[in-house]
Protein 1
Amino acid sequence: MKSLYFFLMCFGVGWAQHADYAVAAIPAALRENANAVVRLEEIRINVSSRSAVTIKTLRIVTVFNEAGVAYVGAKEDRDVKSMNATVYNELGVELKKFKRKDFKEEAISESSIITDSKITYLDFTPTQYPFTIVYESEVADGNTGFLPAWFPVAMSAASVESASVSVTCAPNLGFKFKENNLTGFEVTKEDKPNGVKFTIQNVAALKSEQYSPSFLKVVPHVLFGLEKFSYEGINGEAADWKNFGKWVENSLIAGTTELPQDAKDNIIALVGNEKDPMKKARMVYDYVQGKTRYVSIDIGVGGWKPMKVADVHRLGYGDCKALTNYTMALLAVVGVPSYYCLIYADTEKLSLDEDFVSMQANHATLAIPDGDKLRWAECTSQTSPFDYQANFTDDRLALVIKPEGGQIVRTIAYPAKENSQVSKATYAIMPDGKLSGHIEIKTKGTQYDSREQISRKSSTDQSNYYKEYFLQINNLKLERINLHNDKLQPEFTEKLSVSALAYATLNGNRLMFAPNAFNQFTSVPQRYRSRVNAVEIDRGFYDEDEFTITIPEGFTLEAKPKDMELSDVFGKYNVAYQVIDPNHIVYKRTLLINEGNYPASDYEKFRKFCEQIAKADNAKCVLIKT
């Protein structure tokens, strides 16, 4: 699906520009921390009718290094009317010109995509840095459902001297816009008849820092849209989410949901005499997972309109829209209502903008009412459990298409305590320092998602995975791996038998080792001299460990770390050592990291919190030979 957050990276015509392109002319403050500098960007958007928009853009960018090239890549999937580019060296001397015929045009083609879309792009490989490139272009589109959003700062490590966007719209189309994150920047706004203009100046390069909020939450941008639009010749309404949902239902989904008789017979036979709606829903979901595979489709209105469910049944594949629609049709056959749902899917939690009705989503999924709750089916996945959304569509606003129209809802949120990993182990330290033992690890919530994929690896890849995961154990040998994926919970269980030579360091008559052999925290955030961005922990988690350790005969415990408890707004950490008898120690540890947002001034406090945990996890016991 196309996203509202479309980054326009090509350039329009019609300016007589005589700027000094020499790199030395760039203010020093804008060169700091920058891979590229946008010297000037002017975008002019003209919506002349419900089904016609033209976009003219001039863009002048100086690139300092290879990383900066990504900022100026020219790619356009709209109808290109004109396009040209000129490259200048560090002193502003012209090096090369590119005319329209020099730009390449080809179909978007990947193994998982069926499309009739084409892109026009400049295949340019720099031979020297820095350089300045001037792009100009004019593009047109009959689709007005996706007016390009204005993102003058499109990525970190790129500064902006001056950028503007001007929108003019034919009257009676309900032109609208929404400003985001403009406070704190040099932005001017000019209201125009049937339109608006925004200009921004002197934006220093944004730093990329660990645990920063999503880019969309911090960069200045403006969304544009129409209440009356056209999409692939289909007129639509976006005055409110209820009516927009009706348009999706009546103009995009209607006429696609008729199943062939054999499909109906198959699903009725599969469900049999089952009466429970959620059990029937699980059975249908499992059936779809086993019968179909995901293929992205973007032909005609394929960006938003699902293919017919009869074709999905016959072919055994479809994209997110098609597979969601197919599952919904199958559920209807066995009397289970469900709702087609539009959402922004990503590992980052990106919500639809509730206050700006428009075509925003990039994904379709299925919502199934269960009393006052909604259950979710990720129909594109052949492995994801029923009613599981972690790390892809969790905890964000989505649009559910109900019979009465569209409704904004929030998807499943996974509190930190539910994102659990519980580990229990018994292991022995041998007189020569060898470790030998067994461990069981159970994961749920978001941590399940990061572990269940292990079961689909080859035995060699599984062994390599655990050697990387237990990196603190040198010479690790996996003697037995037993994995169980309980998709009903969902919960993933790993039972391992392991050994490792020289885990404990032998020094004279002493052995030294870290009791936490299997779950050491090592993710200490990077230190910054001056933190700029706020701190965001987007998903919390909870770990609980209990390891029973056998001391070798002839050795006694000489020293052990102190019990420790840490508590802060970021989470809690507790570790305790219990001497059961002269030959056994029980190591108990819990770690809770909370989801949350904090000011930049709290970053160093958070970093030290993590540093203390990492240090405690690596603390050593000392055994002495008696």
Note: Residues 1-18, 109-113 have pLDDT under 50 and may be disordered.
Protein 2
Amino acid sequence: MKKKFTACLLISQLLVISNFAAARTAIQSGNGGGSFMTFTFRVPCEDCSTQNSATGNTYIVDVPSGNTPSLAKSPSLQDLNIQMTLKNERLVYSFSFQPGTSPRAVWRGGGTVLQIFFVPIGTVAAVRTPEVSPESPASPVPPSTVLVNPAGNGSLAATVSEAMVVSPPKSIAPPVPAQTPTTSFTPINRDQNTTAVAAVDMSVPESPAFTVLGVTPQTVTRPTSPRAFATSLLNGVDTNGNFQSGLALDFVPYLLLAGDDLTLKKYQTQAVARFLARTQFSFGTTKGASEDDKSLRLALGLHMTLWDRGDPRMDEELMTCLGTGLKLPPLPTQLECDLPRNPTDEDRAAFAQCQATSQARTDERTRQIQEVTEFNNNVSTTCREEAKKRNWNNSSWIIGAAPSWISEDGQTKHMHWNGGGFWTSLAYGFEGVPAMENRSQLIFHLRYRNREQVPDPDSTGAFLTQDSFFFGTRFRHGSPNFNGSFEYTWLRSRELGLKFDNSSRLSLGFERRIAGDTWFNLSLGGETGRADGRNNGFVLTSFKWAFSDRKPVQQ
């Protein structure tokens, strides 16, 4: 009886060893051996784990952030997309694998090398996570071990007799040296990052308040998504031949109120949030400085962007650039410096050396963080400059409206109603047209203005009431930092109680970025075809600047 028991035990051990040898041979010989990746650690990784995700067909490698591995892939896996995320001082690598295969993790080099092979299902017996090196002695499967079946769905299909678990060798890790910053290839987290990370220094749009007051450098308003906060200063001779100076403040209430609560994901997926973030309010005032016009005008403007193909917050190329070109800052590698209760001279020397090493690591990490910050700022600037070139002249559509008030003698106590205006502008950016899609834009503009008080050319200090209708087109050409435009506007106006008067207006305009978010606009032109023969010329200039809410990408 004893001989039979011994024989059964020997046979069972031989079966287990043969199963294990077959699995190792299959991995090393060619059953999937041509597709593998290798993680190489500086010191034995005692706290690493590998597992299949709950969703299936995704494999996860979880390592301590203080033991960041180098990664190599076989030629057949060069196109495999690996994502890396930082969670609670641990680095999590994840990648998808083809259905019909099952990843197999093998530890080598005393726990410093992890190789993952992609083996067709059914080639080798199931193993648990984390799997370890066949070079180490086999250990029994503990009662809490979770086995992963060949299909990779995380069920408990394998049995103890079908699995082998090998523990990585235990060793005392030496002090971990300071980390080298690594380049991130993780897609930008749209739930964590706000719309401010996609802020691009696009040209500041015309103020809605100035539009209804008729003192924008260009009559044809350029449609675009507004900036969170902007301001404009205006000087020049208006279309009535009178000198004007003015100030306008423009802001987007939703962007200012929502703040960090408006994430990229909400902006890109929620139409209502996107509409509110593209709705601009404006306050503007102008003051005449001539004997013919001493009036003070005031307007409140509303500008809504219905459609914008040039919105950088919707630019997927910008998102990809910001998410894949930045560096992760080094993580702290702390040393615990303990001094015994009754220290010897050797203990004190070792303690001092430990403190000096710890301080040196802190200084080195501070220096590396500064380098990483400068590097990421340069990368982000490059990404945004490329986005500006792609988007500055793209197609868009806006509508606007504004009420206005006037004081003919320039005193605020005499302010009264001065009518209102409604307008819309549609821009075409020549998308897909060679030689024009990055350099040109064509804009169409419609505007109606009612009961506007204008100076009476026949009576100094007197004003007339008129209604007017504009239809204009404007062609822009150039670059995002400097461009010129030609504008034609057909104007149909009528003084109260008189006939309509049709005229035309021609102008040339120039826009130049001076520095940062400051822009200079110049427009000069004149009217032709007026029935009364008073075809005035005009020259208007404005300085516009915006306050950027740009924020760095959070990795």
Note: The chain has two domains: 2-174, 195-318+390-546.
Protein 3
Amino acid sequence: MKSILIAGLPGHFATWLAERLPNVAVQVAFGADEAADHARGNAGLLLLDLAIGADETMDALRKLRASAQGAAVPVIVTLEPGERGVDESVLDRLVRELRVERILFHPLDRAELLRTITQMIDVAAQQPVPAAAASPAPAAAPVAPPPPLAQPAPAATRENVSAAVGQLWTRARGAMLERVAVLERAARATADGRLNGAMRQQATDEAHRLSGALGTFGLPDGTRVARELETVFGGGRFLKPEDGAQLVAAAESLRRMIESRQEQPAAPAPVATPAAPVPGSSSIPLLLVLTGDPALAQTVRGEVASASLRVEVAGDGDAVAGQPDAVLLDVSAPDATSDWRALAEVGRRFPGAPIVVATARGALPDRLRAVQLGARSFLQKPLAADALREAVAAILPAPGAKRARVLCVDDDEQMLAALRAVLGPQHLDVHTCNDPLHFWTRLGEVDPDLLVLDIEMPHVNGIELCRVVRADPRRRSLPIVFLTSRTEPETVYRVFAAGADDFVGKPFVGPELIARIRNRLERVRG
């Protein structure tokens, strides 16, 4: 019978675990030394709370790891963040020196604790944990995913995002093949009867990373195969040598997909050329007006241009210098098809620039089509000066406003590179963190306006990081978007129960992620 040794947690945790793990012996020790002594060759898992003393706990773990019987005992450490947050030097010592597998933060989410234990000692819980048993999140959160956005991603944005991510493939391809090599070694070891626990866990981790990244880089079939490999390696089923042949075939097919993926050609030169610098006006937003209507041009120049907004008027097809901060497009062609072709072309020429459409047609189909193609605002001609000023003000940053800062946390460098490529051109300052143990310091350095978190990360998962952020009074309203390859109902519940605002599935669709991040930032700004 497998056993769990607990030290530092209240006795009712042991009782609670014993009720849910009837085939596991749950024992309570009075101190870290006693728990570590009993754990040598005797325990399936050691659960320690740092409240019994950080020095005592670390000394006990050091002795445990120095013994032959205790070197491989899995360890979970729970701790209470201090007034200044998490002491990352303690986390580093626990993980790097003492090989602690998982860290959980108080107030403990019992469902998360049970899930972590069952995964680490490979047992099934006797009964599901009721929602009431989990510790409540510090901030109220919905328990169901939000409805889909009303504004679909424009085709032009999809093309620009795809090109941006595609440019990363040359660099990412080698890392993807290295991950496949791990899967191939684990598959061959399975076939030869040599697969051990460490090799199996590494294969599970690499398959998980591949499942999240390959679809983003344009290989949806690769995502499917990687998920199948993750399910097999990560499942509790004993793998027999005859399973190895199927695993080898799947890993080899994954390699062929990656090797046959064509490199992205060099990006073409942009249509717009950089504008000559204007002394004293480099920080003043530029509104580009595309119209052949002299009356509209005069109205914009007279009613909208000001000391805090530059206006440039150009006719259809005229050369435009620089990238505008916003575009006012007059769609007055005699047929709707030409209108929408012009709108799509503007989106391609000026990626990321919000577009206001001005047109004499105002029927619902016209409004819907404009929004579908990327228009942020719709104005019906003849234009009232007040409505025009309000529409332009709504899509431009406030005078002197800084670019929104986004912090993306993921242990996969290739995924972080893809996020930088997708979000960077959207007038966002994108910062990254690839080590969840150093998340708290990075959070303080960046002081982001929005946080993007992955769920599955080593030692500290994204859900725990979300709960730590929500426990900080200064950041209870910080928008948090999860990016995860796990979208089953249980995971969705965990994400929102922890205090998340939204989630996007991996492999992510760039325009969807952009739209959701913009949506959250706009709500915060009011």
Note: The two ends are 57 Å apart (CA to CA).
Protein 4
Amino acid sequence: MESLGDFHFKKQTAMFRFKFRIFTLSCFLLEIGLQAQNNADYPVKEQYDFTLYNLESGPHYSACDVPINAASISNDYGDYWSYIMESELRMYETTMDKAYLIKFVLDAICIHEHRRDEAWINLGENPTWACEEECDQGPSPYHDGSIIWPMSHFVHLVRTQQPWLLSEPLPQLGNTKISFNNFGAVFLTYGDFSEWLRVRTEQTLDYYLYTGGYWIDSYDCISAKPNDGQPMQINQQAGFGCALFYLGVADPNTDYIAKALNIASRYSGTTEDESNCDYVSIFDVWVNYGRETRSVMELDPNDSYIWQSSGWQPHTCAGQHSWHDLVPDDYEDLSHGYQTLRYPVAVYRAFPNTWFEEQDMIRYRNTFSYNIFGGYDNGCPIIHPAVDGDDYVNYEPSGGYDGVNNPRMVEASMQWMYFALFDDESAGTNVYDIVMQSYACEIMNEVFYISHSNGLNGLAEVTSAQWANECVNVTFYNRDLTYNQDFAIKNRLSILPEASTPYHQPGSPSFADPVITANEFIIEPNVTSYMSAGEEIILGPGFIAKEGSNFVAYINPSACTDGQRLGQPQPPGQIFYVREEVKRDSAQPTKFSPQLTVVPNPSNGETTLQFSLAAQGHVTLVVTDLFGRVVFNDVNEIQSEPGNYSVPVNVSEYATGMYACNLYVDGMLVDVKRMVVK
């Protein structure tokens, strides 16, 4: 081997080797207190996966096992599974992990097998799930609006947001609903499934728009009962707004878009309430002597929006005094408040500053920061249950929303994390900081805290914000990778199938399909997987890349400095074809981490680029200036042996300033360090 002083670089190839170091796995401790814990270490994704599994097998049944009766199908799908499915889409959009899309597909098929026209005992039922005459509350179309909300989102995602999914193969996972369902349908691609789902979702939507008598007009929009002229409350119309918008855009439909715009315009509209009311006891009637105009979204003096649960449904004298000891309608609670806002959020995500302006989003942020948030108690946020900051919600007489930091309200509050996108760093009451601290104080150490699916949807929103804002560290546990899947983590990616943590125990079922209980993370033959991280990749015991798989792990040092959320990684070089099974079965994991140092730094004479090789590999060193021009480029001519290397670089002729030193091993960038010439 050549001496360190005259080591010469001339050639690069495409196989990547890694540096091996010993890593001792410490106990997984979650500590909270006033001492600051890095938000990057909060295991939000891990808790989401754990909670998803528990809710799927919880009191609301799995999507396939909901009892075929009116109340269960309406309530469990409408108030519960709709949020689970939306959370799966948000997790995919954040992590690009197709496991969440596959779960969504399996859930959606089961839910459609339970639609009334498919599973009901009477023939000729409508293409709906919601209660009709069989339930005490009568017709409840709001449940169907909630159900078709995530379904239309999926159609929009595949057809409009990520059209490459149209031809992406949908994994055929054994005896699952993808291949064996009540419809006899086989879905070979995500595009196949999105088209099938679009048709069926539009069947439900069209029933409410055209044949069922639920669409009133452009002012009141969707009615709670057929042809009664009384609009549903604001949060109950939001799901229909989402479906009209997503489907109107994905499968261009001008009438859907027009109706979606009608609903959007009502958010900024007004309504007239009966205000001067008198009760005539002899006739047992309320008489109205006047009307009062009310804004649907009232602008509070602190520049926040507050709104009543009725929305643009006008108050009548009888209606205002029919509940809870003649208490008039109250302001919305924060859980139903997010139901209201799912429609503005859906529109703004796709087309910002169109039907809803940035100023609207800022005012919704202020609703959380100035009203729902009530300061700190022993370092933990106080969460008020109502959008106007009240501690009691009148339309919940059971007291379920009474008082601050009610567990149901705390978990629901995480959904408001979306509005962290509009945080004002100078305000000191940022949604991101509040929700993260609330999560750390109330939820992170209580593994079974999340009991409702809107809390799961909140975890998905917190995951999205964390991945966007932090140099996040993520741990993956057991999994059988039977389809192509990439993993990109900004800081540290750990695969620890044997780990014992609050969110995973050895022998636990994997969260991803196909479900396994073995303490293994397997990449199957003919499966391609890239893994990238900004600092290090740790492969613990139980990691297996089978012969015939395609596996690449690489370090992307810019992941935490470029300010961009990572999606699917795009590494240089070629995929490493595994010719012999790679199995980590020792007591200590393999650790891959950056290797380049620059000494001295700064310098105005000679500096040295130092690096190590743990295995044979072709090495390239490239130094560029701030304009990307190459000022130094040496490639080794022969494959280097493992060891430590030092390469001198004379910078005396370089202009003063900053330079980038890039280390490539077998054609892949593994480290970047900055060099200063003074």
Note: Confidence is low (pLDDT under 50) at residues 1-37, 322-327, 562-575.
